[in-house]
Amino acid sequence: xxxxxxxxxxxxxxxxxxxxxxxxxxxxxxxxxxxxxxxxxxxxxxxxxxxxxxxxxxxxxxxxxxxxxxxxxxxxxxxxxxxxxxxxxxxxxxxxxxxxxxxxxxxxxx
Length: 110
Description:
Elements: H1 2-17, E1 41-42, E2 47-50, E3 56-66, E4 73-82, E5 89-93, E6 98-99, E7 108-109
């Protein structure tokens, strides 16, 4: 048992010592793809369209709302989903990152 444990020690040190080059959820480089989960409501029924090459695309719009009921802000995300190939989903929309102020003088949003 000790021979088995000693053979795993270098691997355990390498795994805990630094950041891994590949992300756990994707095999693509971290600079080329962002992963986002959008939870919202469909604006209308999804539409099935075909490209000039015959590839099927499903297009739909998702609305997400944030903020209190009397002052809601809605973001609209247009999504195109491809059935096959390397590019499965394409998203066109806006994203706003908000930071809560830590003191009364700080007010940031990006």
